[in-house]
Amino acid sequence: MENGVAEACFRRWPFPIGFAMRLEALLRAHEFMKIERPPELWEAETEDTRFLPLLGEMIAAALVGGTPLEELTLSASNVVVEPPEDGEAMEVPQPAEYVAITVRGVTDLGPDDTWHPSVPHRPGLLFRLRDRLETAGARYAYVRRIPPEGSVTVFFSRLVPPA
């Protein structure tokens, strides 16, 4: 590869595979699951090599909880967190634009819980995933149990393309 071509690859957005995660491709690669996504999906600020181990652990946790793979749902969502208008102190996640990745199904992922890098760790799924969450660059995560379903959701900062 000529030097100019290699340099162009490093400056281009969207980034080549191995740099930024391409959610559209990732969702297509997981079509053996149920997939949910908005018509226009933002990209997440993470790398595929850092994110995929976390996604694998999220899926494995749901499988261990009792749901067959083809009955799990993998969803990606664009999320905007606004600051509170009533003057209350803002908890996590902080006001910003995020991409949320969720794995859900008829499964037991444990009790409701939240994770943030600055919050003390508690026992449970998110405690077991904390290293993967931090490595992937997650900003916030939560587990929800609304019987018979359970879900685990992870927020990533939105990757904004350069102007």
Q: Please give the number of β-strands.
A: 7
Structural class estimated from helices and strands: alpha+beta
Q: Helix and strand succession?
A: HHEEHEEEHEE
CATH fold node name: Heat Shock Protein 90
Number of domains: 1
Oligomer: single chain
Strand content: 25-35%
Radius of gyration: 17 Å
**Helix content bin:** 25-40%
Topology:
Blueprint: H1 3-11, H2 23-29, E1 34-36, E2 43-44, H3 48-64, E3 73-81, E4 96-105, E5 113-115, H4 125-136, E6 140-146, E7 149-159
Parallel strand pairs: 1-3
Antiparallel strand pairs: 2-7, 3-4, 4-7, 5-6, 6-7
Helix pairs in contact: 3-4
Descriptive report:
The protein has helices spanning 3-11, 23-29, 48-64, 125-136; strands at 34-36, 43-44, 73-81, 96-105, 113-115, 140-146, 149-159. By secondary structure, it is of the alpha+beta class. It has one domain (21-159): Heat Shock Protein 90, CATH 3.30.565. Strands 1, 2, 3, 4, 5, 6 and 7 form a seven-stranded mixed beta sheet that branches. A hairpin with a 2-residue loop joins strand 6 and strand 7. Helix 3 packs antiparallel against helix 4. It starts with a helix and ends with a strand. Residues 1-18 have low confidence and may be disordered.
Q: How would you summarize this macromolecular structure in one to three sentences?
A:
This protein is α+β, with helices and mostly antiparallel strands and 163 residues long.
Considering the chains and any ligands shown, give keywords for the structure.
disordered N terminus; 28% helix; 163 residues; Heat Shock Protein 90; alpha+beta
